[in-house]
Amino acid sequence: MDRGGSDQCPSGHRLRPPAPTKYRPPHLRNPQSSSSGGDPPLHRQGVGRSSEIGPRPSPPQRTSLLPLKRQPPQPLLSSPQNSENRILPVRRPESRGIVGRSVNLLVNHFLVKFNPRVTVYHYSLDIRQLVSRGKRPPRKLRNKAGLRLILNKLFLDDQARFPVNRTAYDGEKNLYSAVSLPTGQFRVELSGEDLSTQTYVVSIKIMNELKLSKLEDYLSGKVPYVPRDILQGMDMVMKENPSRYRISIDRHFYPSSFKVEDDIGRGIAAYRGFQSTLRPTAQGLALCLDCSVMACRKPLPVVEFLKEHIPEFDGAFLDVNLRRRVAHALKGLAVRVTHRLTKQLFTIAGLTAKSTRDLWFDFVDPKGKDPTVKVSLVQYFREKYGKEIVYQEIPCLILGRNNRTNHVPMEFCILTEGQRYRRELLDESRQEKMEEKCLARPPERRKTISEMMQDHDGPCGDATRNFGLQVEKNMTSVEGRIIGPPDLKLGAADVVRVENEKRQWNLAESSVVEGKRIDRWALIDFSSSDFPKLRAKDFITNLRNRSKSLGIVMEEPLLCHFTGMRDFSSVSRLEELLRSVVQEGSKKCWNKLQIVICVMAEKHHGYKYLKWVSETRIGVVTQCCLSNHANRGDDQFLGNLCLKINAKLGGSNVELIQRLPHFEEDDHVMFIGADVNHPVSKKSTTPSIAAVVSTVNWPAVNRYAARVSPQDHRTEKILDFGSMCRDLVNTYYRLNKVKPKKIVVFRDGVSEGQFDMVLNEELSALKKAVFDDHYQPRITLVVAQKRHQTRLFLENPGDGGATGNVPPGTVVDTKIVHPFEFDFYLCSHYGRIGTSKAVRYCVLWDENSFTSDQLQKLIYNLCFTFARSTRPVSLVPPVYYADLVAYRGRLFQEAAKEFHSHSIPPSKPHTFDLSFYKLHPDLQNIMFFV
């Protein structure tokens, strides 16, 4: 069946239609005037005028657009550079899911109605400061608040042609308008506090005319490609109202003040805000809004902030240690000054070497009588500003702006609002407070979201209405389904029917399916000279007894080595220690150790050294734990430790009784998980880490092999995806004497804008690497998305458990899903704290012809096979394991970087060496990462 006139390839996938001829809308010669009545007045920051500069350019001649001839379908392996041959995601099966009992849900999607006859105008802005001839040109304007101030001044001076409430501005280059605006260059003059006038030139250029009828065609399935430019424009319109009244931080909007109960101490407070995005859904265009909490520094005077943040600070003399702590707490923060009238913001560059009392500078007499007068800073502030400096024993702040620095006493500086405080810098008690505020229970979260939708500074405002958008302020009601859990196999003949609320099974009276015998192991106690010290004899006895109860035979350790945590601080010392333990153990049994159990006194950054050395250089499995946990010796802790050890050594903890849906016993299906771990954007030389894992057994599908590889900084495409998958397919063949007939790939960490890359580049690389004339497995490609804002709430709290969350197995595939592509939301885990987040699964390619029920049940059942858990996990295990492997690769990178810096002279540039990330051959095909 031809849907929307799109071409289809033999597997049922749609080929992207030919790209239309690029059209650049003409300049608008007769911009329509629009009354701005009812618009709230802009805050007037200065006096001046704006004027148009020069004549507007004449419009170009409009060319006729002839229809292009549709290209015939092309195979997937054609060049990905040819846009006419690119594959679009598969469409949803004709029948939606029906398996499971129904449950009524509310979702934080709010229906947005729009007029398809409306046209939104997209303009490009360029704002530059006009300087006198001969003066050095200033740096490019980057401050969003300053750019918005200049634009507001232009709009304020000519409200007839520039109606502010009919526009939406992103604070940088993009301006969207509900009416056509004049184009060209316009002069804007702003008067500062010192009565000087700054002149700016605002260049406005038409970029596109966004016809909302195209969005309606997409929502109805008439066209297969998403009009991203229209969605981006409308999303900006929805963000215009909160951007005027709230503080924007990383696409979130927060108020300028905090609630008293959200003060967590030390000058830090929890700010409650929201994030939102527009989504095309089966019910139409929807606004998805979710609340968020962020730790920020309170907008206090600097001295008051320091008194709260550093209890030892009292405004008196700073010793060396206290000075260092003060400098660390303040450097890079933005402040405004109070000793003079100005709205300028300054950045703290550091502290002066001398105290305020001892600071002198050369004062230049404006009258030129005595240009070399020495003036103390205390005297200068007294005479110039009439301010007496109270805190004279502490340093001044060095404030930087526009490559200039000046010294200002701390008491005349106030921290600006909205300055994030990273959660990892909080102490343990305040981290717990933040976690408590972030993990709101479902009823509280649902109430908060509804209130934010109603707030005057929420997403609904005058600008939204003036663009013809109407937002339904009640959550979307949708019918979900609860899929039943599978039956599990434990021990030799134990069958577990998981029917309880948490979907949890108990190992107290059961054993694992296959316990790996542990004859050769060693214990390294790193806590022997630290606190708390391990009671090694008791720990070994308790661990062996718990292993035995789980069906895992564990002999006495071949050797025990006792040392201190100091050995964790050095890569070379750790390597020497591990090698000596492995060699000594091997001599005693004439074979290599199976595992080394390492007990630490505390969490330590040397953990990454241990994993890198053991897993890339020596090739021995290690299992770490803390001495205080080991000393307690409770069954749950020891049981979890045994599950991890058994999985690492190739044992099987739990299996499904029935085969996976849609597959036969002799199908030999391989499941692949792929993910990329990125460093922070500021570390431009640090590589991203790509990880690919795959199952190596069938039909149990609970043993995995892993491959890890570094690649270019923040590159999302897995550059070696084809070769890594080929290696894993060959590994499957070596272990099973047959290649998999079917492959299901789960890709993690990609946004919808990257679906095309995954579908047309990574999948293409997989097929090129694996396919040959005699082997062409059927492939299904699914993207798992965790980073979305969609939240599911029970309409009737009685339908859930004690926490109020949706039950495990809740699936939604109507109304809030894509209009026609194959996706669904599945909450597979039991939410103990906070509000559960379902995972969105998007099917991009499907040669195995799954129905909705089959794929949903398949993923849910797989979530019961996670090796180190006795309940279903929130994410399908191939992706979960890929996350763990990618993070392990990040630890390799951090350890290798330090090793690299000591082994290579500093004069040589830093480059990453693939050998530092290559797994030892003995560990490549076992689950060392769980």
Automatic annotation (TrEMBL):
<dbReference type="InterPro" id="IPR036397">
    <property type="entry name" value="RNaseH_sf"/>
</dbReference>
<dbReference type="GO" id="GO:0051607">
    <property type="term" value="P:defense response to virus"/>
</dbReference>
<protein>
    <submittedName>
        <fullName>Argonaute 3</fullName>
    </submittedName>
</protein>
<dbReference type="Pfam" id="PF02170">
    <property type="entry name" value="PAZ"/>
</dbReference>
<dbReference type="Pfam" id="PF02171">
    <property type="entry name" value="Piwi"/>
</dbReference>
<keyword id="KW-0678">Repressor</keyword>
<dbReference type="GO" id="GO:0003723">
    <property type="term" value="F:RNA binding"/>
</dbReference>
<dbReference type="InterPro" id="IPR012337">
    <property type="entry name" value="RNaseH-like_sf"/>
</dbReference>
<comment type="similarity">
    <text>Belongs to the argonaute family. Ago subfamily.</text>
</comment>
<keyword id="KW-0810">Translation regulation</keyword>
<dbReference type="Pfam" id="PF08699">
    <property type="entry name" value="ArgoL1"/>
</dbReference>
<dbReference type="InterPro" id="IPR003165">
    <property type="entry name" value="Piwi"/>
</dbReference>
<keyword id="KW-0694">RNA-binding</keyword>
<dbReference type="GO" id="GO:0031047">
    <property type="term" value="P:regulatory ncRNA-mediated gene silencing"/>
</dbReference>
<keyword id="KW-0943">RNA-mediated gene silencing</keyword>
<keyword id="KW-0687">Ribonucleoprotein</keyword>
<dbReference type="GO" id="GO:1990904">
    <property type="term" value="C:ribonucleoprotein complex"/>
</dbReference>
<feature type="region of interest" description="Disordered">
    <location>
        <begin position="1"/>
        <end position="89"/>
    </location>
</feature>
<dbReference type="InterPro" id="IPR032474">
    <property type="entry name" value="Argonaute_N"/>
</dbReference>
<dbReference type="InterPro" id="IPR014811">
    <property type="entry name" value="ArgoL1"/>
</dbReference>
<dbReference type="Pfam" id="PF16486">
    <property type="entry name" value="ArgoN"/>
</dbReference>
<feature type="domain" description="Piwi">
    <location>
        <begin position="595"/>
        <end position="894"/>
    </location>
</feature>
<dbReference type="InterPro" id="IPR003100">
    <property type="entry name" value="PAZ_dom"/>
</dbReference>
<feature type="domain" description="PAZ">
    <location>
        <begin position="301"/>
        <end position="417"/>
    </location>
</feature>
<dbReference type="GO" id="GO:0006417">
    <property type="term" value="P:regulation of translation"/>
</dbReference>
<dbReference type="InterPro" id="IPR036085">
    <property type="entry name" value="PAZ_dom_sf"/>
</dbReference>
<dbReference type="InterPro" id="IPR045246">
    <property type="entry name" value="Piwi_ago-like"/>
</dbReference>
